[in-house]
Write a sequence for this structure.
């Protein structure tokens, strides 16, 4: 059974940084692209970034390009998202998901950006 | 404002059939497969339809998807109270070089 568990969320001040992680199990991690999606309070789902199985290709939504960095460690079955220069509007629940257009999702981790 | 347009709300009574539309363009729906998700607040979104009209195992056959040109639809028949949730379409977009989600449709079972 595919299992994705996010961690690393919390409260951070504007301009601060945070690193989110996603522990994956139940499938051959390196065989699949992985994706981050978020949902701000009262808003819909927003795709943020995807990375191929071998990390040779990444892409980002314009809203986070240059501030967020996606990466993965296939030896540890872990996906990461480094969040820098955080803004109040980055407040959201962040989901990791398997595949470029997600098949499986984690439960999410909450990030609050506030002074 | 999403590049994929969904109605903000839909409703039906138990047993009825409801459809939710998703309208895009040639750079997304017109060129790529559409996916549909069900999302209850506080939970992980659930894949309902992939590649326009395929159901993952465990999704009942009263749920169906279709696509024509630059539009897609999700249909749920035999509506049940547990179908009350938010529904999103998603597809790759060439212009944005990323996945785009529709704005979401809140389904209410009256």
């Amino acid at each position: 059974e595919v299992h994705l568990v996010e961690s690393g969320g919390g409260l951070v001040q504007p301009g601060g940084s945070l690193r989110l992680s996603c522990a994956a199990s139940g499938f051959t991690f390196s065989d699949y692209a992985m994706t981050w999606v978020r949902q701000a309070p009262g808003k819909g789902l927003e795709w943020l970034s995807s990375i191929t199985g071998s990390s040779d290709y990444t892409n980002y939504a314009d809203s986070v390009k240059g501030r967020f960095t996606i990466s993965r460690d296939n030896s540890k079955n872990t996906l990461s998202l480094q969040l820098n220069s955080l803004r109040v509007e980055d407040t959201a629940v962040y989901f990791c998901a398997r595949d470029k257009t997600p098949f499986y999702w984690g439960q999410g981790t909450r990030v609050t950006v506030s002074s | 404002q999403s590049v994929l347009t969904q109605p903000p709300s839909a409703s039906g009574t138990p047993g009825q059939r409801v459809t939710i539309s998703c309208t895009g363009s040639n750079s997304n729906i017109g060129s790529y497969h559409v996916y549909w998700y069900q999302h209850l607040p506080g939970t992980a979104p659930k894949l309902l339809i992939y590649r326009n009209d395929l159901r993952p195992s465990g999704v009942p056959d009263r749920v169906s998807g279709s696509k024509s040109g630059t539009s897609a639809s999700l249909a749920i028949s035999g509506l049940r109270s547990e179908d009350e949730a938010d529904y999103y379409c998603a597809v790759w977009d060439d212009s944005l070089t990323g996945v785009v989600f529709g704005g979401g449709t809140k389904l209410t079972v009256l």
